[in-house]
């Protein structure tokens, strides 16, 4: 059907909208009514599957949704798994567990019929089978899951009538236009780097340690005391060669994660750090304090190398270095140093210059255009660790500027 012959929505759920442009408006609605108007995508798919098995055509709503949304699929599908995580997150936010530090984006709805929006913003939304989420469907599905069993999510007494959610609605546009919006929302945006996003997660233990390290450390640079916070870059993935900052907050977090977890942290540097990741009985408060103190000393001692942006600032070297520092921590259970001076001895002869002669094939590689340091913690962190901790190996001698005698 063309948009011209569709009947405008003039009855249904009363709402106040703010038009943005033709066929687009924004508003807020309580969760109770939102979930009453926007069907549960899981239920829609299940009913469509039953219809298909019975060799019956799916209803019109299921057909419309299939035109503009991806399938949730089985419980093992990525989207389905994300729904469970999202439901837990939303429930914790609704219950007050996150305070003000939580967010869910506005839901983007599509109504094939045009809305009759009056000059004062008064309008009606179709109550059943007229609204489809073209963006934010995972959120809608998670909310349906919570609403069906609120006790399971700790929300037995929660007032869904009083919880408001923002939305934008595209109305009176064709299926093809709705599909285009789905495409644009999912492919036009630049995905946020996972490590960068994680470095801003203050509920993550490693990130909180990294932030405490930044807030409590002062280093000497060219005879001047400078707060570490002025030398750590936030909000970007990389530090420019002429930038004042030593490294990104994500890079510092890599150093923190590997200091806490050791070699296991090299592979897990871009993941959450949970109390269960540490040896049983670890005092997290003590772990945080010891990590901040130990790395604070390291950053001060090697401030000149960090300020020169030598090899020590590359992600792979930060990972291998942190995993080495782990051997000096009180909770270390494998290859723990026997002497407090062991760490200083291992690091004292390393050549930190950003040169292939010392780090080629370890944390850097030769390319047709010179030396590349693009390898991350996971790619080269273990090689760096082995080179630091095995001085007599070929790589161990290389990073120390030594040549093995024939």
Overview in brief:
The protein has 406 residues and is of the alpha+beta class. It has helices spanning 31-37, 41-53, 60-68, 78-94, 137-148, 175-187, 194-198, 205-216, 249-261, 264-267, 284-301, 303-307, 315-326, 342-348, 356-359, 377-389, 394-398, and strands at 13-16, 18-21, 24-30, 107-111, 122-125, 132-135, 164-171, 218-221, 224-227, 232-233, 247-248, 365-367, 370-372. The chain folds into 2 domains: 3-189, no CATH class; 196-398, no CATH class.
Write the layout of secondary structure elements.
Elements: E1 13-16, E2 18-21, E3 24-30, H1 31-37, H2 41-53, H3 60-68, H4 78-94, E4 107-111, E5 122-125, E6 132-135, H5 137-148, E7 164-171, H6 175-187, H7 194-198, H8 205-216, E8 218-221, E9 224-227, E10 232-233, E11 247-248, H9 249-261, H10 264-267, H11 284-301, H12 303-307, H13 315-326, H14 342-348, H15 356-359, E12 365-367, E13 370-372, H16 377-389, H17 394-398
Parallel strand pairs: 4-7, 10-11
Antiparallel strand pairs: 1-5, 2-3, 3-7, 4-6, 8-9, 12-13
Helix pairs in contact: 4-5, 8-9, 8-11, 9-13, 13-16
């Amino acid at each position: 059907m063309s948009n011209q012959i569709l009947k405008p929505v003039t009855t249904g759920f009363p709402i106040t909208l703010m038009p943005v442009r033709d066929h687009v408006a924004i508003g807020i609605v309580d969760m109770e009514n939102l979930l009453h108007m926007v069907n549960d995508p899981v239920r829609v798919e299940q009913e469509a599957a039953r219809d298909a098995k019975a060799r019956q055509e799916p209803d019109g709503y299921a057909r419309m949704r299939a035109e503009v949304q991806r399938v949730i699929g089985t419980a093992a599908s990525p989207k389905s798994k994300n729904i469970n995580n999202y439901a837990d997150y939303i429930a914790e936010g609704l219950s007050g567990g996150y305070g003000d530090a939580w967010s869910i984006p506005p839901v983007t709805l599509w109504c094939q019929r045009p809305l009759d929006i009056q000059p004062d913003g008064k309008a009606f939304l179709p109550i059943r089978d007229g609204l489809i989420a073209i963006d934010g469907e995972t959120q809608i599905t998670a909310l349906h899951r919570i609403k069906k069993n609120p006790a399971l999510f700790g929300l037995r007494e929660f007032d869904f009538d009083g919880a408001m959610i923002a939305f934008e609605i595209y109305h009176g546009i064709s299926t093809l236009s709705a599909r285009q919006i789905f495409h644009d929302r999912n492919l036009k945006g630049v995905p946020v780097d996972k490590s960068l996003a994680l470095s801003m997660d203050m509920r993550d233990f490693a990130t909180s340690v990294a932030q405490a390290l930044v807030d409590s450390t002062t280093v000497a640079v060219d005879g001047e005391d400078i707060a570490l916070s002025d030398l750590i870059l936030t909000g970007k993935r990389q530090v420019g060669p002429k930038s004042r900052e030593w490294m990104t907050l994500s890079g510092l977090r890599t150093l923190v994660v590997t200091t806490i977890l050791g070699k296991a942290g090299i592979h897990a540097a871009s993941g959450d750090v949970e109390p269960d990741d540490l040896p049983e009985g670890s005092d997290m408060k003590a772990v945080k304090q010891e990590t901040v103190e130990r790395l604070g000393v390291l950053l001060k001692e090697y401030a000149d190398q960090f300020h020169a942006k030598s090899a020590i600032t590359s992600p792979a070297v930060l990972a291998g270095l942190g995993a080495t520092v782990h051997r000096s921590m009180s909770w270390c259970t494998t290859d723990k140093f026997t002497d407090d001076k062991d760490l200083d001895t291992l690091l004292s002869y390393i050549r930190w210059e950003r040169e292939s002669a010392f780090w080629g094939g370890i944390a850097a590689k030769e390319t047709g255009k010179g030396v590349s340091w693009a390898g991350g913690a996971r790619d080269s962190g273990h090689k760096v660790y082995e080179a630091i901790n095995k001085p007599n190996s070929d790589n161990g001698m290389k990073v120390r500027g030594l040549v093995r005698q024939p």
